[in-house]
Structure formats: structure tokens, C-alpha cells
């Protein structure tokens, strides 16, 4: 059932307000300016600190975003603060809480402590809230002094959504007092409803199957929004932990914010999940979206980046319409916490809020001790600067560890004796994470922070049984990482910017080439779009062409084996082993057993030659220190890339 709150009135001070936004100057009697602030995808980034690199940074941190929030509150007569999910997992502090300290009933998670300190008005659940299991999630949100809502996850599903028993309340009513342009106060009832991608049932099946069920986002909204209006909601804000995807609605779609905005009765959409910024160029020319005005289906919307990089801000001019309020006009923006200069340096735009830092100081120090614990040695550097263009040591060590683990677990089973392959992808490979977002572990001691850096997610090990023909299709899906290249032409752009690096699986145990002259057989969603195309050529096993009928065991993770990324052959139907151990734990145990690891890449994959052809790709500036170590590819520096990246040229 929904919950009704009257927790506190809005912060009220008008200092500097008129200068900051025209709505404040325009508001008259019966008109009020309401400011809606959003955080999203913070992923336990509270301190401005990179636990993987063990150093302070100026590009992340809720403590920095807090200063933007405090600034709005100081100038605003009417303001609310909302979070859009993915707050419990995403960096070593999240892992420390889940795996080292734990969350018992009555404990307060540091992320919740920081959010309580900031005085959030409400939040929804993101997909990563489920990564550590339901008991951890529920013990964590129990410490929140604000409501956490989600309308499409149910512990008991009825015939229609409003009758479901939801995991947390589907929506909440915030009863507040608005101060209008004449200084008069009037009540308003604001409805807050939340949504999470239905794909959580795939991504965290081991935690959720048999415990919860999910509904389509739009269907849940269409069921609950009329009920919210009946409960007196004058303004309804959707917390959509769902990206801005296709405008056309399809059942159980992951990125549903556009059709969600089209649901009658929803007034404002706060989005997330995509780790992008809206309004902004990321969504230019997207149907149903005005990327400059900040609207989706004509309604105000915002997406505030990730890890605290931005604060989303929707400004509403409200007018009295009889005995209720309605939106007369609106604006939206995403305010950053830093600026990247032309020389690639970072200029912080705000300082950290001391109160937020103090609220989690003890857990920050405990996390530092946790990540600094040494587990072994590496005799070669581990880096991912060239992971998308050549066989790579940071992916190699993951594959080695997975193979080592699955070999042991297949012994004595019906699958013993089948050849074992290992599929692994680079997680930190630049992209939207920026030019510093790469694994970079020097030769020498390996600590837990380095293992977490190699493998960002708390996935568990799985194994699937597939044939040689499906191995080829798996690799064809992975090869969507690259644009089609015209033979004989110079300096073509190599990487497909819309293809996530975590879907670029390299399969170890076979050798192959990727023919870039062919179009991708699969699109970014894993659908066959060029059935005659075959980029994977010269695919061999033990030096011989792979037998399409030969069966293999492929070591992977629960996300992939559960269908994540839509890879051929990776599904619950082909899964033959579900491990209790996380991939990270397996890597740690592998390193401990080996003592010293030698993770040099074996160049089992390369690009097929194309005479007279060159391609360009961008990577981190620090890549220059490792260019001589790259095997199987002719790479040379090609100047500076955009946004702080360095550009390289490959001669095919």
C-alpha cells in the first residue's frame, strides 16, 4: 500500500533567489516556484575518492553534489530532493559493506547515512540494489529516514498491479506547503512513484527467483497513476531508473523513460540507469525527446550523470487552478561538479560538504584498509588501455582465473573432459567513464582494490555448454564493438560508441580474427540484422578449424549466462554450473594459489589484414607507457582525441 508522509516543510529562504531563476521573479499571488533536485546512479560514491586507484579525485562524490544541493536550498523558497536509484553497489565501499562488514538488522549503511544527512525526500530502487540479495537490500533501506518506492517489483503479484504486494511501497505522497509569489503558503500534495528495469529478474536471478516478480514499467505506471490522482496527487513525479531508449513501447523494455513520460497523469520524469546527462547532446535527435529544452514527450525531465557527477534540476512554475496546482511552465538542467579544461586537467566547481564526509568517515577509513590488503604479486603490469583493440592482460587474468576455477568444478561431473573456454570482457575501457577510466595496475603487489578494479561487478561464476557453431555466434555478437571499415581508406573510426565494453567478450582457448570489412551480424541489442555477414574468420581450436558440432564448456558470469547482453548460447537453458563464488573471489583465490601471476596476453585474437587501411581509436593518455607491449596489432600515436583522450592509429 502507498504511504502518506508529512515529514517536514520545504526549506525557506529567498537569499539570491531572484538572480538565480526567472520563475522566482515572475511568481505572483497564486503562483509558486518549485525546484526538484535529482541524484542518480551514485553507486556508493560518497567521498571524492577513487578506491581502485587509492587517491582523491574531483570528478565523483555525493559529498560534492551535496554542495550544489545546499546551494539550491539556500536560495529556493520551495525545493525537494529525490534519488533515482543505484546507490548500494558500485565501488569497493559497497563491497566492503556486503562482504566484509555485512548489514544486520538495525545497521545503517554508509550510503543511507549520507543520504539521511542530506535530507532526501524520497528515492527509488535501481537494478544494482539487488546485487547483494534481498536481506542486504531490505536491511539497508530500513535505515533510511526517507521513503523508498518502487511500483513494479512485487513479493506477491495479483491480477492487476494496484493489488500487488510490492517489495517496497509503490508510491508515496509528500504533503508540503508552498510559498507563492505573494508570500502566502498553500498546501500541495506531490506524488512520487518509482520504477526499475524488469531485467533484474535476469541479472540477479539467483537472488530474486522465487522471491519477487516484476511488471512492465509502463503497465505499472498506467495502473498506479490513476490511483495516485484519486489519493489527491496534484503533481506526479516518476523516478524512472530506466534509460532514455526507444519511443515505441514494447513489453518489459529496459529503457522505458520515453513511453513512461507518455503515460497520462505523469508530470515530471527523473531518469537514470544510462549514466548519461540530460538535457544534453547525448540524446540529440532522439524521437520524443527535446535534448535542449529538457523534455520527454513534452514533459520536463532530467538525468544527472553518475557517481555524483551532476545534480539534476527541474524548475516548475506552478499556478493555482481552483483548489489544486498545475504546471504553467518548466525548465531542466544538469549541473556538474567539475569542468574538464582544454589541457585535460580537471577543475572542481564545488568543495565537499563536511557534514556528508563526517557521516561516513569511519566506513571510508575501513574501506581503505579493506582495499589495501595484499593478495599476491604480478610480474607484469595489468592495464586495459588497449583492451578493445588487442588481446589484453587485464582480460587475460580474468580468463585464466575462470578457467582454473571451472576446471576444478567440472571434475567428477557429466561434463568432465569437455574442453573449457573462458569468456571475459573489459569493464574499465574509457568511454563515458572518461580518459582516466582504465585499469592500471603496475607490476608488483596485487591488493583487493586491484582485483576489484579488474572486475567491477559482484557477478558470480557460471558455465554454459555450447557447440563450436555457437562459439562463433557468441564472438559475432561481441564483434559489434567495431564499425564497418572500408578497405583501402585511411583513418576510419574503429569503435562503435553505442556498444558497451562489458559486451565485448573475448573467448580464451580459441584463436580467431575479426574481419572489419564485414558489417556486424548483430545490432547493439543482440538481434541478427545482417544474416549473411560473418566477421569471425579463421576460428580455430588447438590449431585446427573449430568443429561446429564439438561441445565446449564456456566459463562466464551470471549476468551473461542469465541472458544479459543477448549472446547466442548464453542462457539458463545452456547453463550447466552456477557457482556460489563471485568472479572477484575466484580471481583472488587464483592469485593467492599462484603466489605470482604472469598475465601477459597471448594474442589469441587479432584483426584480419586489410592492405592500405588505417583506423583510429581513442584511449587514455597513460596508454603511451604500454604501447610497446601490445601484441598482434601495429599501433602508433595519432595526436590528441576529444575530452582528454589520446588518439591512436592502427594499420590493418
Automatic annotation (TrEMBL):
GO molecular function, a single term: 2',3'-cyclic-nucleotide 2'-phosphodiesterase activity
Domain named Calcineurin-like phosphoesterase: residues: 34-276
Pfam entry (one): 5_nucleotid_C
PROSITE patterns: 5_NUCLEOTIDASE_2, TAT
Domain 5'-Nucleotidase C-terminal residues, every copy: 389-568
Cellular-component GO terms for this entry: outer membrane-bounded periplasmic space
UniProt GO BP: nucleotide catabolic process
Cofactors demanded by this protein: a divalent metal cation
PANTHER family attached to this UniProt entry: 2',3'-CYCLIC-NUCLEOTIDE 2'-PHOSPHODIESTERASE_3'-NUCLEOTIDASE, 5'-NUCLEOTIDASE-RELATED
Protein name as annotated: Bifunctional 2',3'-cyclic-nucleotide 2'-phosphodiesterase/3'-nucleotidase
Naturally occurring in which organism (per UniProt): Yoonia algicola
Amino acid at each position: 500500500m502507498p504511504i502518506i508522509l508529512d515529514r517536514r516543510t520545504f526549506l525557506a529562504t529567498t537569499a539570491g533567489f531572484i538572480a538565480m531563476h526567472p520563475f522566482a521573479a515572475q511568481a505572483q499571488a497564486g503562483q509558486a516556484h518549485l525546484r526538484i533536485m535529482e541524484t542518480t546512479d551514485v553507486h556508493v560514491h560518497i567521498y571524492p575518492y577513487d578506491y581502485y586507484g587509492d587517491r582523491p579525485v574531483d570528478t565523483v562524490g555525493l559529498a560534492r553534489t551535496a554542495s550544489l544541493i545546499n546551494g539550491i536550498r539556500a536560495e529556493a523558497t520551495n525545493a525537494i530532493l529525490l534519488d533515482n536509484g543505484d546507490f548500494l553497489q558500485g565501488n569497493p565501499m559497497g563491497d566492503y559493506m556486503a562482504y566484509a562488514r555485512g548489514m544486520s538488522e538495525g545497521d545503517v549503511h554508509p550510503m543511507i547515512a549520507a543520504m539521511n544527512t542530506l535530507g532526501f525526500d524520497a528515492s527509488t530502487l535501481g537494478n544494482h540494489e539487488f546485487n547483494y540479495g534481498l536481506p542486504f537490500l531490505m536491511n539497508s533501506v530500513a535505515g533510511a529516514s526517507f521513503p523508498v518506492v518502487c511500483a513494479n517489483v512485487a513479493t506477491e503479484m495479483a491480477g492487476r498491479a494496484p493489488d500487488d504486494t510490492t517489495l517496497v511501497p509503490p508510491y508515496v505522497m509528500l504533503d508540503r506547503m508552498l510559498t507563492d509569489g505573494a508570500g502566502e503558503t498553500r498546501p500541495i500534495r506531490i506524488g512520487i512513484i518509482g520504477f526499475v528495469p524488469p531485467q533484474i529478474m535476469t541479472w540477479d536471478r539467483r537472488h530474486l527467483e522465487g522471491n519477487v516478480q516484476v511488471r512492465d514499467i509502463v503497465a505499472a505506471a498506467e495502473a498506479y497513476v490513476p490511483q495516485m490522482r484519486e489519493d489527491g496527487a496534484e503533481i506526479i513525479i516518476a523516478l524512472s531508473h530506466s534509460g532514455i531508449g526507444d519511443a515505441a513501447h514494447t513489453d518489459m523494455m529496459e529503457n522505458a523513460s520515453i513511453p513512461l513520460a507518455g503515460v497520462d497523469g505523469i508530470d515530471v520524469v527523473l531518469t537514470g540507469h544510462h549514466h548519461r546527462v540530460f538535457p544534453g547532446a547525448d540524446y540529440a535527435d532522439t524521437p520524443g525527446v527535446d535534448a535542449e529544452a529538457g523534455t520527454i514527450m513534452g514533459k520536463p525531465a532530467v538525468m544527472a550523470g553518475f557517481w555524483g557527477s551532476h545534480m539534476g534540476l527541474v524548475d516548475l512554475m506552478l499556478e493555482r487552478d481552483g483548489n489544486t496546482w498545475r504546471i504553467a511552465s518548466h525548465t531542466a538542467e544538469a549541473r556538474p561538479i567539475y569542468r574538464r579544461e582544454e589541457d585535460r586537467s580537471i577543475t572542481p566547481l564545488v568543495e565537499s560538504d563536511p557534514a556528508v564526509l563526517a557521516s561516513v568517515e569511519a566506513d571510508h577509513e575501513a574501506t581503505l584498509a579493506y582495499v589495501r590488503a595484499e593478495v599476491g604479486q604480478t610480474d607484469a603490469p595489468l592495464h586495459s588501455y588497449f583492451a578493445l583493440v588487442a588481446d589484453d592482460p587485464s582480460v587475460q587474468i580474468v580468463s585464466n582465473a575462470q578457467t582454473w576455477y571451472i576446471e576444478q568444478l567440472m571434475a567428477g561431473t557429466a561434463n568432465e573432459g569437455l574442453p573449457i573456454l573462458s569468456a571475459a570482457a573489459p569493464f574499465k575501457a574509457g568511454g563515458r567513464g572518461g580518459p582516466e577510466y582504465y585499469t592500471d595496475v603496475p607490476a608488483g603487489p596485487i591488493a583487493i582494490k586491484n582485483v576489484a578494479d579488474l572486475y567491477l561487478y559482484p557477478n558470480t561464476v557460471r558455465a554454459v555448454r555450447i557447440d563450436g557453431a555457437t562459439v562463433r555466434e557468441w564472438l559475432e555478437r561481441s564483434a559489434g564493438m567495431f564499425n564497418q571499415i572500408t578497405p583501402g581508406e585511411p583513418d576510419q573510426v574503429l569503435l562503435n560508441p553505442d556498444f558497451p565494453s562489458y559486451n565485448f567478450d573475448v573467448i580464451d582457448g580459441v584463436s580467431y580474427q575479426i574481419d572489419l570489412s564485414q558489417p556486424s551480424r548483430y545490432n547493439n541489442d543482440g538481434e541478427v540484422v545482417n544474416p549473411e555477414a560473418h566477421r569471425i574468420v579463421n576460428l580455430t581450436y588447438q590449431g585446427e578449424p573449430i568443429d561446429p558440432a564439438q561441445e565446449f564448456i564456456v566459463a562466464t558470469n551470471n549476468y551473461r549466462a542469465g541472458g544479459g547482453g543477448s549472446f547466442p548460447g548464453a542462457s539458463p537453458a545452456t547453463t550447466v554450473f552456477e557457482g556460489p563464488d563471485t568472479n572477484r573471489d575466484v580471481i583472488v583465490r587464483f592469485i593467492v594459489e599462484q603466489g605470482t601471476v604472469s598475465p601477459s596476453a597471448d594474442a589469441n585474437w587479432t584483426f584480419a589484414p586489410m592492405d592500405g587501411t588505417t583506423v583510429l581509436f581513442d584511449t587514455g593518455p597513460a596508454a603511451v607507457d604500454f604501447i610497446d607491449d601490445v601484441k598482434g596489432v601495429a599501433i602508433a600515436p595519432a595526436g590528441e582525441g576529444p575530452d582528454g583522450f589520446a588518439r591512436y592509429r592502427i594499420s590493418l
